[in-house]
UniProtKB/TrEMBL annotation:
<feature type="coiled-coil region">
    <location>
        <begin position="53"/>
        <end position="80"/>
    </location>
</feature>
<dbReference type="InterPro" id="IPR055247">
    <property type="entry name" value="InsJ-like_HTH"/>
</dbReference>
<protein>
    <recommendedName>
        <fullName>Insertion element IS150 protein InsJ-like helix-turn-helix domain-containing protein</fullName>
    </recommendedName>
</protein>
<dbReference type="Pfam" id="PF13518">
    <property type="entry name" value="HTH_28"/>
</dbReference>
<feature type="domain" description="Insertion element IS150 protein InsJ-like helix-turn-helix">
    <location>
        <begin position="4"/>
        <end position="42"/>
    </location>
</feature>
<dbReference type="InterPro" id="IPR010921">
    <property type="entry name" value="Trp_repressor/repl_initiator"/>
</dbReference>
<keyword id="KW-0175">Coiled coil</keyword>
<dbReference type="GO" id="GO:0043565">
    <property type="term" value="F:sequence-specific DNA binding"/>
</dbReference>
<dbReference type="InterPro" id="IPR036388">
    <property type="entry name" value="WH-like_DNA-bd_sf"/>
</dbReference>
Amino acid sequence: MLEEQKNYQKAATSHQVSYQQVYQWVKKYENGGEKALKDRRGYKKEEEELTPEEKVNLQMKKLERENDRLRAKNLFLKKLEEIERRRE
């Protein structure tokens, strides 16, 4: 199709997709080759693929989750301690 004057409408009709979809696929292919056409929705990068900024952000999110978990645990333990004191 690429060699044949890029007839987007014909390709869209034959594959039952929109003209715009075909156009986007062709542009992706021209800019990044076959790899650019791969569906990466929901894909997480491997740690080696992350930029230094992304690594810092990931570490920050992990620490925030751990902090939230520890806060919840502390609240639970305080309430448990209070209940035990009331029973005595």
